[in-house]
Specification:
Helix content is about 55%, strand content about 15%. The protein is α+β, with helices and mostly antiparallel strands.
């Protein structure tokens, strides 16, 4: 399950989108304002993040707002830090604090 989120996060533009959405929900147009690329390119990145379940979208009136899926994002971060801990010689039985 974690393959798609890591593949999606391998791209620096997608990581920047995640950081933007960490602050607040945004429309595709608002996200596009932060980049020097076409709106179809932004849409491609948003679709990759949605497929990886890192981002959700919700229609509100005429706009679609994108949100960070914090549940999946927290799971990915937890896995990453647990893997880093194991690679540094820690135990595989890392417990939540």
């Amino acid at each position: 399950m974690l393959e798609l989120p890591f593949k999606a996060l391998a791209d620096p533009t997608r990581r920047e989108i995640i950081l933007l959405l960490k602050e607040r929900d945004l429309t595709a147009g608002e996200i596009a304002e932060h980049f020097d690329m076409s709106k179809p390119s932004i849409s491609h990145h948003l679709n990759a993040l949605k497929q990886a379940l890192l981002v959700t979208d919700e229609r509100k009136g005429q706009h679609i707002y994108y949100s960070l899926n914090t549940t999946v994002f927290q799971e990915v971060v937890k896995w990453f830090f647990n893997a880093a801990h194991i690679n540094e010689g820690g135990s595989e039985d890392v417990k939540d604090k």
